[in-house]
Write a structure and sequence with these properties.
- The chain is α/β, with parallel strands linked by helices.
- The chain has a single domain, classed as P-loop containing nucleotide triphosphate hydrolases (Rossmann fold, 3-Layer(aba) Sandwich), CATH 3.40.50.
- The protein has helices at 46-58, 74-82, 140-157, 187-196, 214-226, 251-255, 270-282, 321-331, 333-357, and strands at 60-67, 106-114, 117-125, 173-178, 202-206, 285-286, 293-296, 299-306, 309-312.
- The strands form two sheets. A six-stranded mixed sheet has the order 2-3-1-4-5-6, with helices on both faces. The chain has a three-stranded antiparallel sheet with strand order 7-8-9, with no helix packed on it.
- Strand 4 (173-178), helix 4 and strand 5 (202-206) form a beta-alpha-beta unit.
- The longest helix has 25 residues, at 333-357.
- It is globular and about 65 Å long.
Amino acid sequence: GSSLEPEECSMEPPAVPGEEEEEEVPLSVAPGPVGCQLFGYVGIEAVLDQMKIKTMKTGFEFNIMVVGQSGLGKSTMVNTLFKSKVSRKSSQPGQEERIPKTVQLQSITHVIEEKGVKMKLTVTDTPGFGDQINNENCWDPIIKYINEQYERYLREEILITRKRKIPDTRVHGCVYFVPPTGHWLRPLDLEFMQRLSKIVNVVPVIAKADTLTLEERAEFKQRVRTGPRGAPRCPMFPQSWLKPRIPQIQEDLKTHAISVYPQEDFDQDPEDRALNDRIREKIPFAVVGADQEHQVNGKRVLGRKTKWGIIEVENPAHCEFPLLRDLLIRSHLQDLKDITHNVHYESYRVRRLNESNRPG
């Protein structure tokens, strides 16, 4: 019968009858010192150049989802992140935007290029989320969409003849926009992040943070972190909005077992943990988006012009947009993709394969 194991071939001449066969002495390799010194240039470092050239030729994919109520500046924020018109515009000038009766997901894909590096960027918006009087189960279409992308990737992966590069439409990061109320997280915010943080990387941000003073911003962040201790979870019904809550929001995430990105469980070494600890201290980021340039001290800057001055979105003293940009693009983009593949997608893959192997 045929075998998938390769046949062992010998380069030695066949033994002649009558000749005594010499006893084979097994070779042993002594372990060398860790980090042994080279006595000349080998060229190992050139592998980095090879990886860079290959990445520049093939490019890579990045898929981001933005979730939040209408009017929180989701499209403007995405355009500010990538400094181009990559997100949808809800309505044209002079036309009134119609709020969808249910959550509708809209994806737009662009290929953007910077210094020879190409990136296929897909932005998924969720118009209609949180805009109704009764927002019960409004997260279901979003969960369904994320799982559909996992399923699409899984179906391509289990084919006998697979593509050399499987198209990746999985959501690598979900930016959740919290309204700048200055008080506490709503039950809708808690319920959404609790459900979505189990299947996707969730990064919460305080939208339109320029509507808060610095003191209000700091207090709001603390409330997001600490939250109401011992407070019962409110059911997602309209009347729950009327229930008074203790004005406390970073321990609220802990109280409700919400693990936002970057997750502590996935820090691989002390350097990563130290960096991510500094990031976790700033979450949720208080951000301001703007897609218009203004003249400030002879320089062109992105910002929002007000009667009392210009809010520079890339100035860390004005808002925390630079922290969000660094997290999503400059420092953790590959890590977002790795955790999506090795953790969230892997959990989905194991669950689906167990279901398919279950008898009956």
